[in-house]
Amino acid sequence: MATSVFLSSAYLAPVEYYAKLLAYDKVYVEQHDHYMKQTYRNRCTIAAPDGELPLSIPTVKPDTPKCLVRDIRISDHGNWRHLHWNAIESAYNHTPFFEYYKDDFRPFYEKKYEFLIDFNEALCQLVCSLIDIQPDMERTTTYRTDFTADEDDFRERIHPKKDFRTEDADFIAYPYYQVFQDRLGFLPNLSIIDLLFNMGPESLLVLQKCIRG
Question: pLDDT tens-digit profile of 134-154?
Answer without folding.
Answer: 999 999 999 999 999 999 999
